[in-house]
Design brief:
Blueprint: E1 6-7, E2 13-15, H1 18-31, H2 34-46, H3 49-52, H4 58-74, H5 77-91, H6 113-130, H7 134-154, H8 175-178, H9 181-190, H10 194-206, H11 215-220, H12 234-251, H13 254-271, H14 288-291, H15 303-320, H16 323-339, E3 349-353, E4 356-360, E5 377-378, E6 387-388, E7 395-396, H17 398-412, E8 415-418, E9 421-424, E10 430-435, E11 441-447, H18 450-453, E12 457-463, E13 467-475, E14 482-486, E15 489-492, E16 497-505, E17 510-515, E18 519-524, E19 527-532, E20 535-540, E21 560-561, E22 564-566, E23 576-580, E24 586-591, E25 606-608
Parallel strand pairs: 9-13
Antiparallel strand pairs: 1-8, 2-10, 3-4, 5-25, 6-7, 8-9, 10-11, 11-12, 12-17, 13-16, 14-15, 14-17, 18-19, 18-21, 19-20, 20-24, 20-25, 22-23, 23-24
Helix pairs in contact: 1-17, 2-5, 4-5, 4-6, 4-17, 6-7, 6-9, 9-10, 9-12, 12-13, 12-15, 15-16, 15-17, 16-17
Length: about 600
């Protein structure tokens, strides 16, 4: 079964805004680091995870997937060469049994071994997609088969380990092991062995757990929400359902699609916070929609969960063509995801211990924060999945490895295609070289800064001749009203839907999208949060304007807040606003992604979004 939407060719779109800045930062500060790639590969030679039931085996594949998606956006020749070298090095770690594992044979399929093997497969599979080195691709496929054949030969009913029991750490009821469904289905697409489909079917029969809760059945029958389950680990559960989507594409049983859709709806309705993060109890589903307004002493909203949600939404966007999934990606990207990028290159990171955060020496720069604060909390409160990787003490974390997937998706979802129709999901400023149905090339340029300056978004077309083109323009769900203007005609639209515009265009024609760029108040549990163009505003302790004081926002009709743009100069932001209070005073707020970024200082580091 084919996806509804497809990406445009690699390197087609060049962004100039936040998506471009974040991807450039990640490439330079992480993905170009050849020493880091070698250290990740070395874990498969040292097999240190055998000693502590660890998850070092996930790091290589996690970052390789993100790097390959980043390449799809940038078409960076230096990057792809670095990745090819890393893959060549990684292939040398496969043992005589066919295993890519950070566990010795005597301890295999315990701890996080299956989880690491999953990411080994995904890393190879994603590189296979972008590589034009046919010899290397042949060797990758052979290596994947050997790796998969060993797993199939040793895991399953009547074998060394039943799939849902092939993990013993943290009692996540089989979710990490069952999430290997996705790479097995991706491998089946490349090499359709019946044994791989049979293994996938066995995973599906378990319902992803070793408990009496078959999650596929639970969501098919809509028996519970995700926060009501006995196992609530968000990242791993979403990974399993992403595998279910790939399984459905092959077997075409509508039951699985229904279960997946119900699962997604439960996640969105009960867990998706205003900043696009999920889980306000560490990394667990916990009815975050309601709980997001409350202060928490422990870390919340794990970046691994945010990125996995974005990735699942990206897959659902491609498969269904529903604009709501682009809305969710935008919400996560421009708030939680970009907020987690360590653009200030801070070095100090807190580690939570005995209910008190204390500084730890990471001995390595972390390009990403692991958690996203909401109520009176600082960034860098913990390092998710921190593991020591070298004898001299170099450490790295799981969220730091996965995050390039999120930054890449923030660019990849922007312009897509369905047959001869171009789908415009993101209005980030960009230029794109595309092809009309006639086969002739044309250029599309998006300008305007609705969040920063309240400007109208403009799409300018540059053509060499008259072209008949069709666009589906995402009308964001956050825009209460939106009007599309083209060639003297005005079209009213519906927020949260695509608007289809088909016309004959000549060079210089402009499509304008007039969205509602005002600041709106969101009220929940007696507290208020402010949003503008889908971007959450935050108070920052660096403004020194009474962060801990209770304030009452002056809210007008229909929730509109008449904030005015300002430039404080205190720190770098995307935009700042003076927000009026009922008592006639004002407070300063900035975009969430810019708030709290100077955590090295150790003072004035807290932020707050729920007032």
């Amino acid at each position: 079964m084919m996806d509804s939407l497809k990406g445009v060719p690699y390197g087609t779109v060049s962004y100039q805004g936040m998506a471009a800045q974040m991807n450039a930062f990640v490439i330079e500060k992480q993905l170009y680091d050849q020493t880091l790639w070698k250290i990740f590969v070395q874990q498969f030679r040292d097999r240190k995870d055998s000693d502590d039931g660890g998850w070092r085996g996930e790091f290589f594949g996690k970052m390789m997937r993100g790097a390959c998606l980043t390449y799809k956006y940038t078409c960076d020749t230096r990057l792809v060469q670095i990745l090819e070298n890393a893959i060549e090095d990684f292939l040398t770690t496969q043992d005589d049994l066919g295993r890519f594992s950070t566990y010795i044979v005597e301890k295999e399929f315990t701890g996080w071994d299956m989880w690491g093997r999953k990411y080994a497969m995904l890393g190879l599979e994603y590189f296979y997609e972008i590589s034009d080195n046919e010899n290397l691709k042949t060797r990758i496929l052979v290596a994947l088969e050997k790796h998969a054949d060993y797993i199939v030969g040793n895991v399953g009913e009547g074998k060394k380990h039943p799939i849902a029991y092939a993990i013993s750490f943290w009692h996540h009821a089989g979710l990490p092991s069952c999430s290997i469904l996705e790479p097995f289905m991706k491998l089946y697409a490349l090499k359709p062995k019946q044994a791989y489909l049979d293994f996938a079917t066995e995973i599906v029969r378990t319902g992803f757990t070793n408990t009496d809760e078959n999650l596929i059945e639970v969501f098919y029958k809509q028996e519970k929400n995700v926060n009501e389950l006995s196992v609530k680990k968000a990242y791993e559960m979403m990974s399993c359902f992403q595998g279910l989507l790939e399984y459905y594409k092959v077997v075409k049983d509508e039951k699985y699609l229904t279960s997946l859709n119900n699962f997604m709806n439960s996640v969105i309705e009960t867990e998706l916070t205003e900043i696009g993060a999920l889980g306000t109890s560490y990394e667990f589903f916990d009815n975050s929609v309601d709980n997001q307004t409350e202060p928490k002493s422990l870390p919340i909203a794990e970046t691994c969960v945010t990125v996995t949600f974005m990735n699942l939404c990206y897959q659902m966007l491609q498969f269904t063509g529903e604009s709501r999934f682009a809305d969710y990606i935008e919400k996560s990207a421009y708030n939680a995801m970009f907020g987690a990028v360590n653009t200030r290159e801070n070095q100090s990171v807190c580690k939570w211990a005995n209910e008190v955060p204390h500084l730890i020496d990471t001995k390595y720069f972390m390009p990403f924060d692991s958690y996203s604060p909401l109520v009176m909390q600082r960034r860098a409160i913990d390092v998710g999945g921190l593991k020591q990787l070298t004898q001299d003490g170099m450490k790295y974390g799981c969220c730091t490895c996965i995050s390039s997937t999120g930054t890449a998706i923030s660019a990849l979802y922007g312009i897509m295609k369905a047959d001869d129709v171009y789908i415009i999901n993101s209005y980030e400023e960009c230029a794109a070289n595309l092809f009309a149905p006639s086969g002739r090339e044309f250029t599309l340029q998006i300008t305007g800064k609705p969040f920063e300056n309240g400007e109208t978004t403009k799409i300018t077309l540059q053509t060499k001749s008259e072209e008949t083109l069709t666009f589906k323009l995402r009308i964001p769900e956050w825009s209460k009203t939106a009007t599309v203007v083209c060639k003297g005609k005005r079209y009213e639209t519906v927020g949260g839907k695509y608007f289809t515009l088909s016309d004959t265009f000549v060079n210089g024609d402009v499509i304008e999208i007039e969205t509602d760029n005002r600041i709106y108040a969101v009220q929940r549990n007696g507290k208020t949060l402010l949003k503008k163009c889908g971007i959450v505003l935050a108070r920052d302790e660096r403004y020194q304007d009474g962060l801990e004081e209770c304030v009452a926002i002056a809210i007008g009709e229909r929730g509109v807040v008449s904030g005015r743009k300002t430039v404080s100069g205190k720190f770098e932001t995307r935009a700042e606003f003076q927000i009026p209070l009922i008592d006639g005073c004002e407070i300063t707020m900035c975009d969430y992604a810019s708030a709290g970024k100077e955590w090295d200082s150790g003072t004035n580091t807290r932020i707050n979004v729920w007032l």
